[in-house]
Amino acid sequence: MPTIKDVARHSGVSISTVSAVLNESAWVPEDTRIHVQRSIKALGYRPNRVAQSLKKGKSNVIAVIISDLTNPYFTEVASSLQLRLMQEHLMLVICNSDRSHEIGDKHFEFMLARQMDGIVIVGDSVTEAALQRWQQMSDVPVVAIERDYAIANLPTLLVDSEQAAFEATTFLIERGHRNIAMISGPTHGVGSTTFGRSTRLQGYKRALEERGLPYRPHYVIEGNFQLASGERAMQTLLNLAEPPSAVFAANDLMAIGAIKAIQSAGLHVPNDVAVVGYDDIALASIISPSLTTLAMPKRELGETAAELVLHRLRATTTATPAGLSVAMPPNESVTMLHATLIRRESA
């Protein structure tokens, strides 16, 4: 296996010059840089990235912790995060808490110990207690998505789910529905502290109130953001003495589960029961009938989280690496984004 000495000998420069090229030092002339890079490629030399990271105090790796790898919403956010980071030659490590706060906290503490250059937390994957310990003990940049921690100055990206749920419910009312149910997120356990969990219910209630319709608690069935829970919730609603003619589900997976239950009961979507979801995962446009839903700004969430991490990395260094292009984050620690109603066949 070729060494850095072999590269220096092959390119006719000193070892320190090869090291400067590898570390992207600005003082190296462009023609020398190109010449050394050609030697590196010709010899098949691979630098020891671990040693480089220890020397520079940087890992060039960002971690993202998500709460459910099987939920396409999380993977789509992580994908956009990764694409933006790769433009700056940073790698992304994806950690799945698997709907367990204990696992999420272990991932978080492990990544802090491994000196990641930054950590992005998506959803209800890491507890507030873990964030409080981080605030006291570490300076690793952390960004939260869709989790409203009571942590001062923590860069946080949220989506106005209250307004989105209001628009979804209002849309159903304007379509002539009066008996509108909701499959909500959990009130206990993982997912219960996700920012949108309570705000989507608030938006649903506000729409009913503003249109003069009664709020009926038995029309709100709790799910856990997974497909099977949406199916069970819809079965419960269909067994009511007066079943709803429409249902708003707090995420697409539960909405898809609801459609499955409606069709299994021999009913038609949307003629018998209309369904609206939330997230606009890729599957929403593929299923039959295609799902009317609120599109979360997944790409914007990932890209903005990347910009926030990159800004803080730049702020902790004395010089910006060559080619690094970082957009300035907002002045406030909390950034509110918006969902968009996508009309399809299910409602």
Overall pLDDT confidence: 89
Can you say what the CATH homologous superfamily of the largest domain is?
Answer: Response regulator
Rg, rounded, reads 25 Å
Largest sheet: 6 strands, parallel
CATH topology of the largest domain: Rossmann fold
The quaternary structure here is single chain
The CATH architecture name of the largest domain reads 3-Layer(aba) Sandwich
Say how many strands there are: 12
What does this structure look like?
The longest helix has 18 residues, at 298-315. This protein has helices at residues 4-11, 15-22, 30-43, 49-56, 72-86, 101-113, 128-137, 161-174, 195-210, 227-238, 252-264, 298-315; strands at residues 61-66, 91-96, 118-122, 142-145, 156-159, 180-184, 220-222, 246-249, 274-279, 292-295, 334-337, 340-342. The chain has 347 residues and is an alpha/beta fold. The model is unreliable at 318-331 (pLDDT under 50). The protein contains twelve helices and twelve strands. α7 (128-137) links the parallel β3 and β4 (142-145). It has a six-stranded parallel beta sheet, sandwiched between helices. 43% of the residues lie in helices and 16% in strands. The protein has three domains: 4-47, 434 Repressor (Amino-terminal Domain) (Orthogonal Bundle); 59-158 and 298-336, Rossmann fold (3-Layer(aba) Sandwich); 161-296, Rossmann fold (3-Layer(aba) Sandwich), CATH 3.40.50.2300.
